[in-house]
């Protein structure tokens, strides 16, 4: 995106400064100016809210506390990889990583499968009331995650739920099911969002392809399976990467459900573990957790892209 | 062009990193620099989660036009306010006065979050006005040190549904053995004797406190951590028994579900602190007039030991620009008769001030409790609270880890006793991570 941008500017300006030798230095100057105006605000916010916090977290993760006696003044000193060693020894943290990976392995395919199904239905000529369904599927995404979790918390709750006949017999908030109860909330919220991305990709497919397919005698089913799905694979991969990142960063739903369920411990998800560690307060260890989590997320997303890239973008 | 941009970004990152490093390596401010009154009007901020505190603050503001206090509310300490305080202390913008429970004072002191207000006017002399054990909590037993003003205490007793016990013909238990007998009978009637609060590890500590146990010891140089003393394990095994037999519920405490179970008569008792009186009142309005309060069950018949659950202080947090005024406000808040009466009426606080406990509001019968003078029971309990219970320096962490273990036990893996053993291990690890000396 950034690479393409200066070219557009140049081509617009070219006719104005078409002649004269002196145009060259002025051209460079205004070019820079335009760049500053367009990139500046982004760069500033990017620095303030992205680069600096990350830099600070990395810096913080290399610190450790020293003190004299019980209540002696604490000083933070450079501790090298002390905190990272602690991270790799923290079995609770790694258990939480495994928990969200299991969560993702089940929830992401289910959610994206549903999103794809809904997108195909919206795109199919058979469905009536498309506008209504598009909005209806998307509406849960407009509900903030915390509100959604509170709402579902009440729905799952054994005695307060309107479906207490069911919830009294199935412990949705118990130790065995609570992870999947959370998966249901996350799916409910994000199916519509992912559906919209896939649906946009479907709309971008040229209709000539369908016409050609029909002339060749393809059914709606064959069009969906052999034309639409292969052509929206890049969108599916995009939503999958978003979902993998979102899964590893799961926080709001389990955190909110803690006031409904005794089965969610303080290290239920990696982000919850970071939150708990920061509230000890042990900022340096929390920062090291965050850095490791960010790197793991990056690696996982990158590996997923690498594995799928050849097929999708060939 | 892309390379240029990257250079700019890199340069900016380096500059910001350097700037941050500069901030962080500044030496901590060790000189407290006396405690003198400020000239001119002063604005203070005060954070507390006690309901109705805003109205007490309004009363102060009315009386003190030159020292205006802005009130901020938040969740219960361990549910978020402490974390906010720690973050704010680190960022240097903590409220001037904050509510801190006694069990959290060591954590705040270890994080250098408390101002020593002993030198702020006549604060040191105010010690006589407070119940002895609360004053020793805020001074850490040191001379010339006052780290907070005691606000309330939480002596524990047993709230029980007098009507249900009578109707069922079950005697009101006075010992833990009788309590277990009653639990079985109540289970047979389809209700629970009480709820086991997995997340309220400070409640569990109160039970250990009643049994004359300790979790921490500090000899001035290093800490000893042992959550698995015989007294502590006796309590754990007792509740494990009730849990195994399904005689106590395991709802998330203070949740809507929990309130509902009190309101619908599912819960017959609650071993709780004096401030719990208003919790039941607001959470279970349909049960008005049906509750009564008795001394909590005893381990040995004929004893009169009580535990303590909660109780807070008003601490002047590090970084306050007006520690003198903040200390005066904190003292007024916790000794002024009008303030104490309002804090009780609206927030259910039972004052740590000796005179406060004799206010008319604490000698009257309570309609919600069938006209019983419940504060007489708590005054008696308060006198029986063992004075020297010691809290650890990373209590939030200890609570979290024990609570996780309790949660696992409720989910069927491990026992409460296992949770205490794990809690000990993890607390020792957490102390070491903070370079706090631990005796092995």
TrEMBL record, chain A:
InterPro entries: MetI-like (IPR000515), MetI-like_sf (IPR035906), UgpAE/MalFG_permease (IPR050809). Residues 97-304 form the ABC transmembrane type-1 domain. One of its GO terms (cellular component) is plasma membrane. Keywords: Cell membrane, Membrane, Transmembrane, Transmembrane helix, Transport. The keyword Transport applies. Pfam families: BPD_transp_1 (PF00528). It is found in: Cell membrane. The keyword Cell membrane applies. The chain crosses the membrane at residues 35-59, 100-123, 135-157, 177-205, 231-252, 283-305. GO terms for biological process: transmembrane transport. Gene3D superfamilies: MetI-like (1.10.3720.10). It is a multi-pass membrane protein. Its main location: membrane. CDD domains: TM_PBP2. Belongs to the binding-protein-dependent transport system permease family. This is Carbohydrate ABC transporter membrane protein 1, CUT1 family.
UniProtKB/TrEMBL annotation, chain B:
This is Multiple sugar transport system substrate-binding protein. Pfam families: SBP_bac_1. It comes from Salinibacterium xinjiangense. Keywords: Cell membrane, Lipoprotein, Membrane, Palmitate, Signal, Sugar transport, Transport. The keyword Cell membrane applies. InterPro entries: Bact_solute-bd_prot1, SBP. The keyword Lyase does not apply. Coiled coil: none annotated. PANTHER family: ARABINOSE-BINDING PROTEIN-RELATED, POLYGALACTURONAN_RHAMNOGALACTURONAN-BINDING PROTEIN YTCQ. Residues 1-26 form the signal peptide.
């Amino acid at each position: 995106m950034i690479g393409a941008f200066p070219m557009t500017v140049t081509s617009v300006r070219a006719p104005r400064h078409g002649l004269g030798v002196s145009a060259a230095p002025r051209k460079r100057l205004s070019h820079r100016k335009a760049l500053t105006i367009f990139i500046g605000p982004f760069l500033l916010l990017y620095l303030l809210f992205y680069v600096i916090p990350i830099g600070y977290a990395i810096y913080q993760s290399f610190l450790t506390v020293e003190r004299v006696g019980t209540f002696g003044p604490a000083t933070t000193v450079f501790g090298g990889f002390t905190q990272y060693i602690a991270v790799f020894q923290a079995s609770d943290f790694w258990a939480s990583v495994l928990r969200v990976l299991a969560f993702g392995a089940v929830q992401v395919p289910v959610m994206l499968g549903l999103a794809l199904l809904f997108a195909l239905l919206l795109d199919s000529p058979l469905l009536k009331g498309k506008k209504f369904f598009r909005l209806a599927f998307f509406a849960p995404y407009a509900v903030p995650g915390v509100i959604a979790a509170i709402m579902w918390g009440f729905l799952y709750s054994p005695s307060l739920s309107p479906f207490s006949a069911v919830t009294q017999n199935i412990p949705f908030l118990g130790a065995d099911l609570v992870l999947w109860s959370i998966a249901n909330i996350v799916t409910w919220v994000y199916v519509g969002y992912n559906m919209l991305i896939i649906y946009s990709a479907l709309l971008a497919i040229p209709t000539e392809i369908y016409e050609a397919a029909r002339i060749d005698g393809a059914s709606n089913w064959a069009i969906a399976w052999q034309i639409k799905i292969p052509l929206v694979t890049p969108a599916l991969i995009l939503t999958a990467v978003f979902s993998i990142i979102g899964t590893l960063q799961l926080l709001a739903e389990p955190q909110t459900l803690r006031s409904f369920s005794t089965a969610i411990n303080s290290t239920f998800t990696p982000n919850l573990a970071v939150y708990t560690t920061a509230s000890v307060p042990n900022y340096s260890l929390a920062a090291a957790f965050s850095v490791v989590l960010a790197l793991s997320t990056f690696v996982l997303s990158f590996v997923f892209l690498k594995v799928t890239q050849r097929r999708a973008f060939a | 062009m892309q390379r240029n941009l990257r250079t700019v970004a890199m340069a900016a990152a380096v500059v910001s990193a350097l700037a941050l490093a500069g901030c962080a390596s500044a030496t901590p401010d060790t000189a407290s620099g006396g405690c003198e009154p400020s000239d001119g009007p002063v604005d203070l901020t005060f954070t507390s989660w006690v309901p109705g505190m805003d109205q007490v603050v309004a009363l102060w503001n009315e009386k003190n036009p030159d020292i205006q206090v802005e009130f901020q509310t938040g969740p219960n300490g361990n549910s978020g306010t402490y974390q906010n305080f720690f973050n704010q202390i680190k960022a240097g913008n903590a409220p001037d006065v904050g509510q801190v429970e006694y069990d959290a004072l060591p954590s705040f002191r270890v994080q250098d979050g408390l101002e020593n207000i002993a030198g702020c006017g006549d604060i040191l002399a105010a010690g006589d006005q407070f119940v002895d054990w609360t004053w020793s909590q805020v001074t850490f037993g040191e001379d010339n040190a006052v780290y907070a003003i005691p606000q309330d205490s939480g002596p524990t007793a047993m709230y029980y549904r007098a009507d249900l016990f009578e109707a069922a013909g079950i005697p009101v238990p006075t010992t833990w053995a009788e309590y277990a007998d009653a639990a079985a009978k109540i289970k047979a009637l389809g209700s629970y004797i009480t709820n086991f609060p997995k997340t309220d590890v400070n409640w569990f500590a109160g039970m250990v406190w009643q049994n004359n146990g300790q979790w921490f010891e500090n000899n001035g140089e290093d800490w000893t951590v042992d959550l698995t003393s015989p007294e502590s394990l006796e309590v754990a095994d007792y509740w494990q028994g009730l849990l195994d037999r399904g005689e106590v519920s395991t709802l998330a405490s203070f949740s809507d579900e929990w309130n509902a179970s009190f309101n619908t008569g599912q819960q017959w008792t609650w071993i709780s602190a004096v401030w719990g009186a208003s919790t039941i009142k607001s959470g279970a309005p349909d049960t008005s007039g049906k509750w009564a309060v008795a001394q909590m069950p005893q381990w040995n018949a004929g004893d009169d030991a009580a535990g303590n659950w909660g109780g807070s202080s008003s601490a002047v947090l590090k970084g306050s620009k007006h520690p003198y005024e903040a200390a005066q406000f904190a003292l007024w808040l916790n000794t002024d008769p009008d303030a104490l009466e309002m804090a009780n009426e609206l927030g259910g606080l039972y004052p740590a001030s000796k005179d406060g406990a004799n206010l008319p509001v604490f000698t009257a019968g309570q309609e919600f409790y069938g006209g019983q003078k419940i504060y007489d029971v708590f005054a008696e309990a308060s006198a029986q609270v063992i004075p020297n219970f010691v809290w650890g320096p990373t209590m939030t962490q200890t609570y979290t880890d024990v609570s996780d273990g309790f949660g696992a036990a409720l989910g069927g893996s491990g026992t409460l006793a296992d949770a205490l053993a794990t809690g000990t291990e993890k607390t020792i690890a957490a102390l070491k991570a903070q370079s706090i000396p631990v005796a092995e």
